[in-house]
Amino acid sequence: MEDMTAWFRRKEKGIQTATEEKKDTPKGLWYKSPTGKIVESEVLAKNFYVSPEDDYHVRIGSKEYFEILFDDNKFRELDAKLTSKDPLKFEDTKKYSERLKAAQKKTGLKDAVRTGFGKSMGKDIVIACMDFNFIGGSMGSVVGEKIARAIDYAMKKKVPFVMISKSGGARMMEAALSLMQLAKTSAKLAQLAEAKLPYISLCTDPTTGGTTASYAMLGDINISEPGALIGFAGPRVVKEATGKELPDGFQTAEFVKEHGFLDFISHRRDLKKKINLYIDLIQNNPVRSEEISA
Predict the structure, then answer these.
(1) The pTM is what?
(2) Mind listing the pLDDT tens digit for each residue in 14-23?
(3) Which fold has domain 60-293?
């Protein structure tokens, strides 16, 4: 029979397990969607970061979109070391230079957009993707410059360009320098159109402000994910400015599509296939389009 004496002595003194030997449950094993559905993180990743029970599309960044869209997640990152300066010496509750350093440390990113060149379904392509975790995906001078350079690279290689927007709008800490990026990126997209190269714009949650007023709505094909918030000013601002109640679903992707600002809404698992299909249609490649849609 087991000697219970040691057990009682241990209970009296308390468990003396060293801190480094304790086994805590690793963080991030579960995800809870806004509708209350709980899913294992591993299952979520395998399902393209979409909650399988309620189809809620979780906000993801460039790392995850590149995994989804580039073949075998192989790509060459463009202008990876480009970082913002603080020419205006902006300061409110914190210096802008300190905010930049904090955002870089927190996210591991240099700024709110990453650009890459690789293959998608065997086709050479340039993709620019915004990251909301970096100062709300705000559009500063580096964001505009990296997008402009990515478009230049697409023209140099004569390949399609895909823009994935996820932004709160212009970066106020850069003032006019930020607003200049609306004109610069729009001008570059006009050059891309003159070169007769496809531009697919994917609006994800949220796509607002100056981003919506420039490159996000200039695609040959404008698409979105289900339920994404898309608009210029947010619903609260619009309601206060107009003094009117807003219709149900105002500024959701479905509402925006119904009013003619989007061409298509795609589930995330179909994005790679759909984007390549649209590119083939723009380039008048019916044989390949049939192969993709089959």
Answers:
(1) 0.86
(2) 444 443 443 4
(3) 2-enoyl-CoA Hydratase; Chain A, domain 1 (3.90.226)
